[in-house]
Write a structure and sequence with these properties.
The protein has one domain (8-134). Helices cover 45% and strands 5% of the residues. It has helices at residues 13-30, 44-47, 52-69, 94-111, 113-120, and strands at residues 90-93, 131-134. Strands 1-2 form a two-stranded parallel ribbon. The longest helix has 18 residues, at 13-30. The radius of gyration is 15 Å and the shape is globular. The two termini are 19 Å apart.
């Protein structure tokens, strides 16, 4: 499961589809609708949120908005708790954002070389609108961190 801190606009088609599906799985876990993935570390930042269901709803809404912008049809009705108004932002570290940027670039080099080339020249790394970037290293829940 990869719930990107990066903005959904940075993902290729495959990445956007994968994060939508994985976000829906995360939503099912947080709502207690599945027994699998309940201990997945990427869910920790949603679980500590004052309203985890609203937080994952806001996350999914951001992904769905990007899909719509691209002309894809991701069913917004699948978001169990759609955001109504502002949802409190989740702090995410600059180190996590950079870690994910490198991870994404490695994936894009293989499956979307043209996008990889365009992204490799980027100086900024935008985050998903649910997250506010704060100073710090890679998050402790991240697997494979260095």
């Amino acid at each position: 499961m990869r719930l990107w801190t990066l903005h959904p606009s940075l993902l290729d088609r495959q990445g956007l589809t994968a994060v939508w599906r994985e976000g829906l799985l995360a939503q099912a876990v947080l709502l207690g609708r599945t027994k699998g993935y309940t201990a997945h570390p990427q869910l920790d930042r949603f679980r500590v949120h004052a309203d985890p269901e609203a937080a994952i709803g806001a996350y999914l809404a951001g992904v769905q908005e990007e899909a719509t912008r691209r002309g894809y049809r991701y069913d917004a009705e699948r978001i169990a708790v759609p955001p109504h108004g502002e949802v409190e932002a989740i702090p995410a570290t600059a180190g996590q954002l950079e870690f994910e940027w490198g991870h994404l670039l490695r994936k894009l080099a293989i499956r979307s070389p043209a996008l990889h080339e365009a992204h490799a020249a980027r100086l900024t790394r935008d985050s998903h609108p649910l997250f506010v970037i704060v100073p710090g290293d890679v998050e402790p829940w991240e697997r494979g961190r260095e």
